[in-house]
Amino acid sequence: MAQPAYDNQDLPFIEASVNYVVDNGIKPVTYISPYGESNRRDETPDHRTVPIYDGRSVASELTLDGNGFEFHNRPTAVTDFLDSDQIETVYNPEVEKIVAAATGASRVIVFDHTLRVADEEMRTAKKLREPVRVVHNDYTDKSGPQRVRDLLPPDEAEAALKKRYVYVNVWRSISGNVEEAPLGICDAQSIAEGDMILMDLKYDDRVGEIHRTKYNPDHRWVYFPRMEPDELILLKCYDTETDRARWTAHTAFDDPTSPADAAPRQSIETRTIAFYD
């Protein structure tokens, strides 16, 4: 297993519980509920307490192709992330430029975003999603190509599928510093073949597929405490190339150092595909 570019033994860390899954030979399932409601999962969870390292001091050493994620300071011109017009006309173009610069791709498209709120009352009222507190990765070798076919015209999709393409999620706080339910990321270099478990996502009208993750004591977890709205995480969720980081496992987790009166986390994750010539 590859060693990280950074020495995690020198980094401060916390210990927190993350929710893996037991690989019992039965494909787990998540049933997607309407916005504002919690999803239901059919699986055998495996809660493990792991060290999660503060990655701020080594952020400059992290790369999408090496570790599967990057951390940047990138201010945004958006003033209200609950305004869908600002998302469409201001934020999405910003994200496309950020991902293009990070990946060197010739074309980047934003195709989706999710607003997540830890406060149940606000989530229900505004019909938003809750933070995902299970270790997962968003795409697989089945759902990655399928999403391209869903988004592009048939001829364009088939041409794109013959070349490299990469899914990159962009994660940002939308309301103050993240004091509660931060994002933990498992360094791709520490994920062994076989750690990822296929999971079905069952919607009313279709079935998607993601990865859940089984426990491996070699996993190296990183987070960026108290993220500010000007900061963001780039998270690789799929790469057609196999000689580099292809995906990462990630999850929200309960930070034991969060203050008792911590403001509920509010965040946006924007999903992109970076295409190469």
Number of DSSP strand runs:
15
How many alpha or pi helices?
5
- CATH architecture classification: Sandwich
Please report the first level of CATH classification, the CATH class. Mainly Beta
Mean pLDDT: 95
Characterize the biggest β-sheet: 5 strands, mixed
* Outline: globular
Tell me what portion of residues adopts beta-strand conformation.
25-35%
Q: Would you give the CATH topology?
A: Jelly Rolls
Structural class based on helices, strands and sheet pairing: alpha+beta
What would you report as the Rg, rounded to the nearest angstrom? Answer: 18 Å
Strand numbers in spatial order across the main sheet: 1-4-12-9-14
Note the run of SSEs as H and E. Answer: EEEEHEHEHEHHEEEEEEEE
Provide the number of structural domains: 1
Helix content: 10-25%
Low-pLDDT windows of residues: none
| Distance separating the two termini | 31 Å
Describe the model.
This protein has 277 residues and is an alpha+beta fold. It has one domain (20-275): Jelly Rolls, CATH 2.60.120. 17% of the residues lie in helices and 35% in strands. It has helices at 64-67, 84-103, 120-126, 143-151, 154-161; strands at 13-21, 29-31, 40-42, 45-54, 69-73, 107-117, 136-137, 165-173, 183-186, 196-202, 207-213, 221-223, 231-239, 249-252, 266-275. The strands form 3 sheets. The protein has a 5-stranded mixed β-sheet, with no helix packed on it. Strands 3-2-10-11-7 form a 5-stranded mixed β-sheet, with no helix packed on it. A hairpin with an 8-residue loop joins strand 2 (29-31) and strand 3. Helix 4 (143-151) runs antiparallel to helix 5.
